[in-house]
Amino acid sequence: MTALSRDGSDLTLAGILGDEGLRLFFPLSALHAALWPLLWAVVNSFALPIDGAIPPVLWHGHEMLFGAFGAAVIGFVTTAIPEWTDTRRLQGRALFALAGLWGIGRAGGLVGGDGAAIVAAVADTVWLGALPLYVATLSWRKRTTRLFGMLVWLGALAMSGGVVHAGFFLGDAALAQAGLHGAGLVLLGLLGLVLARITVPITNLVLAPGGGSSPYRPHPGRLNLAPGLVAIALAGDIAGIPPAVGAYLTIAAGAAFLDRVAEAFIGREFFRTEILALAGSSLLAGAGLLLVGASRLGAPFPETPALHLALMGGLGLGVLAVFAVAGLFHTGRTLPLPRPARLAILLLVTAVLLRVLPDLGVLPPPPGPPHALAGLSWATAFLLWLRVYWPFLSAPRVEEADVC
Description:
By secondary structure, the protein is mainly α. It has helices at residues 13-17, 21-43, 56-85, 93-111, 113-142, 148-170, 173-207, 225-239, 243-261, 273-296, 303-329, 339-356, 372-393.
């Protein structure tokens, strides 16, 4: 007989993972984030098993943005949006259907080639389109405009994914690259939106662990400044504004992320890993966007390491921080973070520096194959998180563990 929790939910492994979006998609995201770079840099030597019209480096960007980070977005949206709207969350077959579509897309990215691009396009288009439709449906049911920002960004992510796949299908590398650049900005916009929502409660929980008071209140103008300026920079790129103007808009968006770092200076609690991780995500995203703008204005370094600093660093650290924090609260636990999770965050930052600083001329290239050491450090960070949190995510909530 199948064991049931106090509320009657299925306590089999499939039932537990299918009970909440983050339980299923955060581990999938961590596995993909860990294994893809190792396959890309160490096993396949920056190639794919099947050649096609699209350069393998664009497949790499696609798999990191829509694969690793895409699963994180699915897990966050299907978990947080029901909480924000006090509605029933997606469970069971709906979550596994999304996971199946996401997995089909990843299978296409694993082998490459023009045929795989078609398969990946169909699967990714469905789940990318399902997310804004889901948010729009909940907004309509609750008659609320609070989700408008999330709806816009998820719609933009779906459109950028469509541009990428159109480029893949047509063999137009320039179009696909433009879509990937847009997707990167969209994900940074989502990052800014998420950080604005979670930084305040986490900061207050660090300052007042009992939750009896809220000693920290942010400056209202900072809440949506970063995603707003990212949106302006993205709109400028789409409109085809002069490169120099676009560079300055990118710098402005980076400065807005750096402005969020000021929220971290809350006294000695500044040195808590939870605070440092959230502030570090804004810091790396902002610094990366500043360097992207500087590169476009003629700075003596390419745009690629700057983009890695913003996406691999800012977005990657933000994703891992959300995994670490939400993975506790949604399994009946609370802060502080487990010590291995703190080590995982340190390893991720180390991976970013190993990937970016040599290309910026700050450090010599590390020994071994190109980017292999960075890839290993990055993979270890996500696998370490998964090792620590899998027992939490694959078991009932703490208060339900002894219920049959």
